[in-house]
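Lecture 7 notes: from sequence to structure.

We start with a single chain of 323 residues. Read the sequence below before looking at the structure.
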Amino acid sequence: MSDIDRSALRLAWPGVAGAFLAVAVAAAVTAAAAPAPPPASVSAATAAPGQDYALRLTRTPAVGEKRLVAGSMQIDDRASGGPRAGAPDQRQVATIRYVVATEILAVSAQGNAQRAALTVRRLTKESGGVTVELAKPGAVVEGRLAGHERVFELQGARLAPDLLQALAAAVALRADDEPNDDDLFGTPRPVRVGESWPVNTALLARTGALSAAFDPKDVSGTVTLAAVKAVGGVSCLEVRWKLDARHGAFKPGSLPAGLSGVMTSTSVSGSTVLPVDAKLPPVSRETAIAGVGDLIGTSGDGSTFNVHHELRQVIHVDLSPLR
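Now the structure, written as tokens:
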């Protein structure tokens, strides 16, 4: 190839890093159009001493289920190197914020949401001190599964990758053959506050990343039941996780033509708050992702060049009933 468009790489990389924990982020749905409830609505831990809790991380949706979701995604994306000698480093810092009303439109026989509508109440992107409205209130984003791909469209046009990733956290679309949160982060035994257990790293290495493959020995992670607390009068569990992976090999077609390389490291940490009652949906979730990639490309004259790419994202979502 004669050149590398680093903007194309920038579009590809968020999907690579984000896909590694698509399952962890997908179940997250967020708060209300009104400001978040005041801290007084969250009480101190209410767990009885020595009490065991059966964890159900995955909540089954129903057709017609409606939620009000408010979320944000902060992005710090850096790239250095490239085919042009002396090319300046590139950095993009942005925040996407939204409030949407979600409705589940289709659910598979196995209980996984396949299609949803997201009606915009607010959708903006902040970058370089400028805030841009990405869609008018009342606009409808349609989300659906195409095989294993999450497709989100506004007026028939697919959303940009960063906006897709932000809104995909508002509604959990999942294929029936994909692992869910319980498969990856759950435990079959009841646990007490403060107890930890390992992430299913073998399963995550095989299926958790759509764009990169990992050796299970290079993936480690721990999940902890951090607290039990009341949110809006509902007893809830706070579950935290930490995951690290190294030496991920990008799968064919996941990078722009002419590039190869490794996902040098990926670190993911996060938490979810969900009611003890497994019939109720999650209350909130936050996920922080840090990814480093080192890539090699070939210029039109046959010479090689290196690209070093770093991405940091923080995704936060809260959920409330739609009134």
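The two ends are 54 Å apart (CA to CA). Keep this in mind for problem set 3.
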